[in-house]
Amino acid sequence: MKILTPRVLQALERFNSAHPWDHNAHYHPWLLRQLPRRFDRALDVGCGTGGLARLLAGRAKGVCGVDSDPEIVARARELTGDQYAHVAFSVADAPDGLPPGPYDLITCVAVLHHLPLAESLACFRQQLAPAGVLVVIGLAREETFVERLLGNVSVPLNAVTGWIKNGGRAAPRPVAMTAVTRAAEASLAEIVREAGRILPGARIRRRLFWRYTLVWRRDAG
User: Fold this and answer.
1) Model-level pTM?
2) Is the CB of residue 31 less than 8 Å from the CB of residue 42?
3) Which ranges in the chain belong to alpha helices (H)?
4) Are 209 and 55 in contact (CB under 8 A)?
5) Residue 145 in domain
6) Best CA proximity match to 98, nearest among 130, 134, 71, 150
7) Domain holding 125: CATH number?
8) Residue 186 near residue 141 (C-beta atoms within 8 A)
9) Phi, psi of 9 (to 5 degrees)
10) Cα separation of 182 and 21, whole Å?
11) Cα 189 to Cα 193: distance, rounded to the nearest angstrom
12) Based on the structure, what is the number of domains in the chain?
């Protein structure tokens, strides 16, 4: 039995379009709680307009944000200005074109499903310094009943959250990245399997709003 009818879904979609919000930025506070208070070098893969990189700048000695889109990198530099001298943005393709590490932190928010999964995880592992942390906020293909149920539950919650975050007013869509929206091909089970092989001990959790999280800490030895 369908939880939400097509008519209800269409109404919610119209409402969400009028009250948009940044699903990825919603998880930034959670992401920061996974990190030490101070660290040296950080790499944000798929940095978009640089919002997360600027947050990381409060804890890191140096932050490198990379994105494959030259226009969005230019916008990130414009928004950052001279306020953060230790934050740099560059145009690069992941995983092969990333600036060389090692990094104490690598973040990858809503980008991994655009990249080759196994190759990217292996690259991130190689680029991490001993005791470094990898944090991924990603999208996975819905496969199980529970995943579809959470997806359906997220639809009305998405509308309520958008209403609250916008103070009940209509708002323009936030522009954090320009990559064309792409459906996730890998299921969460496939991601768990690959992460278990490449990143032993990685903590993966299914989340609301069509996201999952992955945290992996490299052995200090």
Assistant:
1) 0.79
2) no
3) 6-18, 23-26, 28-33, 51-56, 70-80, 117-127, 145-165, 188-198
4) no
5) no
6) 134
7) 3.40.50.150
8) yes
9) -60, -40
10) 18
11) 6
12) 1
Token digits of residue 159: 């509308």
Q: Dihedrals φ, ψ of 176, to 5°?
A: -110, -25
The phi, psi pair for 52, rounded to 5°, reads -70, -40
137: three-class secondary structure by DSSP: strand
Using the 8-state DSSP alphabet, how is residue 134 labeled?
E
If you ran DSSP here, which 8-state letter would residue 4 be given?
S
Please state, in angstroms and as integers, the Cα–Cα distance from residue 178 to each residue in 71, 114, 115, 125, 137, following that order. Answer: 9, 13, 16, 27, 17
Q: What is the pLDDT of residues 89-147, one digit of tens each?
A: 999 999 999 999 899 999 999 999 999 999 999 999 999 999 999 999 999 887 776 66
- Are 216 and 201 in contact by the 8 Å Cβ rule? The answer is yes
Instruction: Render pLDDT for 166-195 as a digit per residue (tens, 0 to 9).
Output: 454 444 555 554 454 667 788 999 999 999
166 in a domain, yes or no?
no
Q: Quick check: 31 and 135 in contact, CB under 8 A?
A: yes
Residue 129 has phi, psi (to 5 degrees) of: -75, 160
3-state helix, strand, coil in the chain (%, to 5): 40, 25, 40
Distance CA 198, CA 200 (A): 6
User: What CA–CA distance (Å, rounded) separates 202 from 135?
Assistant: 10
Residue 51 lies in a domain: yes
Domain that holds residue 135: 23-140+180-217
149 belongs to a structural domain: no
